[in-house]
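Entry for calcium ion complex. Fields follow.
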Amino acid sequence: MTRALSADIAVPSQCYLAEGPVWDPSRHLLRWVDINPGHVHALDPATGAHTRFAPAGADGPAVPRADAVPVGAAGLTGDGGLVLALVDHFALGPGEPGADGGYRLAHIAGFRVDASQVRFNDGKPSPWGDFWAGTMPWREGGPSCSLYRLGTNAQVTELLGDVGLSNGLDWSDDRRSFYYADSTSGGVDVFACDPETGALGERRRFVTVEAGIPDGLALDAEGCLWLAVFGTGEVRRYTPSGELDTVIRLPVEQPTSVAFGGDDLATLYITTAREDLTPAQVAAQPHSGDIFACVPGSTGRPPNRFKARPAWKR
Ligand code: BGC
Ligand code: CA
């Protein structure tokens, strides 16, 4: 029997495209990005304080436009900072803006994708201490995209080509399986993974979703996969054998991603979007773009961190 759960509003953040949630255990904060305006948000669940800053120094427009300064994903680094997938390249920055409100980015040179065609989307630090993030086309029918790896030595390599829309990703505890959602493929695939190096091997279908778009995902401590199914209002849990065992139903159609947080990693935080909704749809689902929370009885795992080598760090 599939369990049915609901979720409460954790932050009425009203984001355009909230994505990439991650629990920051050192600061006791839930962090996420609002991709298009280029914001990094934080919630302190102990006090309810909700803050945000713009790594590019200025707010971009909420909707996709030539002057957008999107932040596709932000991961934690080993020294308390952030690793960022900006529109077309990677950068490192501190954990929060300085006392003057400024945010000092260290841009990683030598690698850019074509920002007129594609932008960075979901990404996470891997168990090997590097950062994996992929791209998506700005417009339907755009070029094929890729999944990239930013190494701890600042070198960028392509892990996977022929991607339609790079989205959710996570690794099993034994580092032998890599779960990956190419949203245009209609499901989640699992790759065999070399536990020493992270090199990808054989690929197979893990689950296909019959409706909606597979988006962000996270494994829990039992190795089950939680998947945000964009367009259906559902977050689903699948067992390692691919069986659907829990559905969280939200009052909004567009959940985008999930992460366990709280000091006990027992709260599942769910990011959502109002991207492309008409004013009538926003009126019917006014909590689109808010962050939801559910305590589903499973717990998460501490996040991986990007471990830049000191030689080029800052
Ligand atoms: C992208 C959105 C897209 C959604 C569903 C997200 O990761 O950032 O732009 O609409 O996935 O495909
Ligand atoms: Ca996503």
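NOTE: Helices lie at 279-284.
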